[in-house]
Write a structure and sequence with these properties.
The chain has 302 residues and is of the alpha+beta class. The chain is built from 9 helices and 4 strands; from the N terminus they run ααβαβαβαβαααα. It has a 4-stranded antiparallel sheet. The protein starts with a helix and ends with a helix.
Length: 302
Amino acid sequence: MKAWLTHHLHSLKIAVQRFRDAPLATLLTILVIGVAVAMPSGLYVLLSNLDRAAGGVKPQIELTLFLKTDVPESTSKVLLTDLAKQPDVAAVVFISKAEGIRKLEAAGLSDITAGLPENPLPDTLVLTPKETSPEALDMLYQRLSKLDSVQQVVMDADWVKRLSALMGLGKNLVLLLATLFGLALAAITANTIRLQIYAQQDEIEVAQLIGATDRFIRRPFLYYGGIQGLVGGITGWLILLLGGALIESSVAQVAAAYGASYTLHGLNLTELIPLLGLSTLLGWLGAYFSVNQALRQFASCS
């Protein structure tokens, strides 16, 4: 165990020394990795904030149930009681025929209603659902439409479907960008490691001649790639913090123009740790494949 720990500490020191030997090249590489991490992460943070903002300002969805004209008011009130007990219904309001005609008169249509021989309006139920997802609304709409006393159900939830579709598109874009920039991160690390390997080819060949194993040769490069990915991930997170600080006042002004207040939210700890872990893993993988390819080339040439 002590020997294993000593070998790893030695490899770690070699990796840190390689950072010190080429500070400018290392800085530029880390900045590129940081940008590669910040791009999909920034889009993810943007979508999260948009979702949070939409959740705070979205209007209340209502379904209007127009009952059949021959349904008596007593039956309408029984239906009102039954619907109010449903687990997916938040509230139900009953609007009688008489109340409906009074609202039309209050809206300035008294001349029209005065000429009617009888009240043509049906009893109406205005229902507020608990769940506002497109799937839940569709299920509720289908169930209400099949009720015997209901003539028609009106639901204006197109904006919910549009918002859901846009958020789904945004999530797919985040996944696509994360994949592309993840591959770019691994490629950047692999290219950096490859340059170092070829610069130290003579040292590696001498080490192989005196009995050094591939694992021993590979280990410092793996530490180098992992550290490079980790520092690049931290740099990407700092870029996000800087970007958020730069636009925070503008976001506050836009929110104030709409009579609201909003504060931008960045990555929390449960999101940051997987991000840093993933960037470290990608850096390690890039180094691993680069070192293995170089060692196979050295072996074939010898």
